[in-house]
Each structure stands twice: as C-alpha cells, then as structure tokens.
Amino acid sequence: MFKFTRCLIAADHGGLDLKQRLIPFLQQQNLEVLDCGPDAYDGDDDFPDYAARLSEKLLALDDQSFGVLICGSGLGMSIAANKIDGIRAALCTDATMARLARQHSNANVVCLGARIIGEVCAQDIVTHFLQAAFEGGRHQRRLDLIKDLEG
C-alpha cells in the first residue's frame, strides 16, 4: 500500500512526451493525478516556471501528495525545485536512487531526465519512490542540518 494518494506532474518541452506517457501509468497506481502543465509545446515552457508551479501546489496539499518533474536531463528541474523551501527534489536515474531518496532524504519530488531514461525505467523509478518510506532517525538529523543551511 502506497503512502501517497496524489501525484502532481509537470514538464518542459524536453519532458512533455514522457509526462504524457506517465500519466496513465500513475492513474493505474490508483493515484489522483494533477497535471501542472504544459498540455502542449508552445515554445514558452521554461523549466523553472513549471518547477515553481508544481512545488507551490504541492506545498499547499497534504503529505499524501508527491511531485514528478521532467525535463531533458532532470537537472534543471531538480535545481529549480530545490530553491523552494519545503521541497526536497531528487534527480533519480534508477530505482535504487528513488528508494534512497525517500528512505534517507524524505524526498517529496522525483525528477526525471527524459533524454536519459526511457518510459519503462521512469515507471520503475516512480514505483520504487512510491513504495519507499522515510526512515527518520539519523536521516532526520541530517535533514534538520540542511534546514539550518537554508536559514
């Protein structure tokens, strides 16, 4: 049983196709999916705008929600999202990274690189992200130290 019940998803032009292919997969996992855009490539889809839009909506929801951000490499989305207080975005390229992002860093956003991984790998990453739980303990102490750096 997954902790999460809702997924917010967004992409830029580099991640649009993968985003559209992941939505049905997420819905099959019994998740409510909130598409934060874009619907189509229009040339005005800068990744910081979509990272901010998704992050702000995510922070307004409960802890049963998580985000998926997709761009060409995943790097831009993860950098932009991590600028927003309360967001812990993890760029993941395999299932182990996704599991550890949840277990050790309590990540609430997974970032994917559409030019780096394929659809099946993306599904595997999201599945492992969903199934993992934050372990707390020494990991919480480290997150508290990161929070201190933000102040």
Short characterization:
By secondary structure, the chain is an alpha/beta fold. Helix content is 46%, strand content 17%.
**Alpha-carbon distance between the termini?**
36 Å
Could you list the spans in which at least 5 consecutive residues all have pLDDT below 50?
Answer: none
What is the beta-strand fraction? 15-25%
Structural class: alpha/beta
Which structural traits does this protein have?
alpha/beta; 6 helices
Topology:
Elements: E1 6-11, H1 16-28, E2 32-35, H2 47-59, E3 65-71, H3 75-81, E4 89-91, H4 95-105, E5 109-113, H5 119-131, H6 138-150
Parallel strand pairs: 1-2, 1-3, 3-5, 4-5
Helix pairs in contact: 2-3, 4-5
Could you characterize the architecture of this molecule?
It is a single chain. The protein is an alpha/beta fold and 151 residues long. Helices cover 46% and strands 17% of the residues. It has 6 helices and 5 strands; from the N terminus they run βαβαβαβαβαα. Strands 2-1-3-5-4 form a 5-stranded parallel beta sheet, with helices on both faces. Helix 2 (47-59) crosses helix 3. The chain is globular, with a radius of gyration of 14 Å. The relative contact order is 0.17. The model has no long low-confidence stretch (mean pLDDT 95).
